[in-house]
Design goal:
Order of helices and strands: HHHHHEHEHH
Shape: rod-shaped
Oligomer: single chain
Structural class: mainly alpha
Number of helices: 8
Largest sheet: 2 strands, antiparallel
Radius of gyration: 29 Å
Number of strands: 2
Strand order of the largest sheet: 1-2
Distance between the termini: 68 Å
């Protein structure tokens, strides 16, 4: 927490800082979150001066202000949809898996949860040329099955590039 002091910014005179301290405004956060009009009246300080000091302190000590619409646009611009490699599953998942979200696959043993995850990992690695970290907490990762999926994906991509 940044303490208000003389010279912290242009206009932050000793008189201003002392008047603010008398009103229990001792930090930058307290000043920028205060009702400036009310504070100016209580401190007998020019409203214009307080607004100017507040503006400078906001620029120096806070991130650039943004609104929810800007944050939403940024999120949309940075979100990608990853195909699972299975058109039916992609349709069920509303076009695929969305980055920035957690997707949990549940089902009884043998229902294909591991195969979906392996297929997704292979699709991201081979088709999208992205790094993949696969975490197996049960020890059931089959390197032979993974190799089969990779070979199938490579063969499929080769057929698309060089059709017979």
């Amino acid at each position: 927490m940044v303490i208000l002091r003389e010279g912290i910014c242009p206009g932050a005179t000793a008189q201003l800082i002392n008047a603010l301290k008398e009103q229990n405004v001792k930090t930058v956060v307290e000043l920028v979150s205060a009702d400036i009009e009310d504070l100016a009246q209580r401190c007998s300080i020019s409203y214009k001066t307080l607004v100017a000091v507040r503006r400078v302190l906001l620029a120096q000590y806070s991130p650039f202000p943004s609104n929810a619409a800007d944050l939403y646009e940024e999120l949309l611009g940075s979100t990608a949809i990853l195909s699972t490699g299975n058109q039916s599953l992609d349709k069920l998942l509303d076009s695929g898996l969305y980055t920035g979200e957690l997707t949990e696959f549940v089902g009884s043993p043998g229902s294909g949860k591991t195969q979906v995850c392996l297929s997704l990992a292979v699709n991201v690695a081979c088709a999208l040329k992205q790094k993949v970290l696969y975490v197996d907490t049960t020890g059931g990762l089959s390197s032979a099955r993974l190799l089969q999926l990779i070979q199938s994906q490579v063969d499929s991509l080769e057929e698309q590039v060089c059709p017979s």
